[in-house]
Design goal:
With 163 residues, this protein is mainly α. The protein has 6 helices and no strands. Helix 2 (26-33) packs antiparallel against helix 3 (40-54).
Length: 163
């Protein structure tokens, strides 16, 4: 792995670690991030180890496909928010001795019907919240920071009063 790609990956993982909980893997990953990397082979082995360790986490920053176009710090905040939303949504789905499972239905675009389980509901809610936050970030409503979630500036629409 080339030096610049390795450094981008390390920066992305460091930003994710600042915002998310890796549990028992935290110290392992932190130590892997500071290992010496003299050549491409060293970087390949270190990156493979980091991917392997973080890949075991339920909210892993290691994803398939093209990476996010958002800054690493913003993506880390979104991952943390998504994890929190999933936890809250699962609890909500399971509330009331299972009554929520028969009350909550999918959006019509998703085919309607009921959610199969708490995980499907949690994934849907997290996806919707993250999509909304990405739009808010791109429209400069949210600054991409955890603190900024409490200080979003929504545009005020003018009311046209014609008489």
């Amino acid at each position: 792995m080339e030096q610049d790609k390795f450094e981008r990956n390390i920066t992305r993982i460091s930003a994710w670690m600042d915002e998310n909980d890796a549990g028992a893997m935290t110290s392992v990953v932190e130590q892997m991030l500071i290992l010496p990397h003299e050549d491409d082979n060293d970087r390949d082995r270190i990156w493979a180890g980091i991917r392997s360790v973080l890949g075991m986490l339920p909210n892993s920053p290691i994803k398939r496909g093209r990476g996010s176009s958002l800054p690493d710090e913003v993506q880390a905040v979104l991952d943390n928010v998504a994890n929190g939303v999933k936890t809250a949504a699962r609890n909500y789905f399971k509330a009331g001795d299972g009554i929520m499972a028969v009350l909550l239905k999918k959006h019509g675009k998703s085919g309607g019907g009921l959610y199969a389980d708490a995980d499907e509901y949690a994934d849907a809610q997290a996806t919707a919240i993250v999509a909304s936050l990405k739009t808010r970030f791109k429209e400069n409503i949210w600054d991409g920071t955890p603190d900024g979630l409490m200080n979003q500036t929504f545009p005020v629409q003018e009311v046209n009063e014609e008489e």
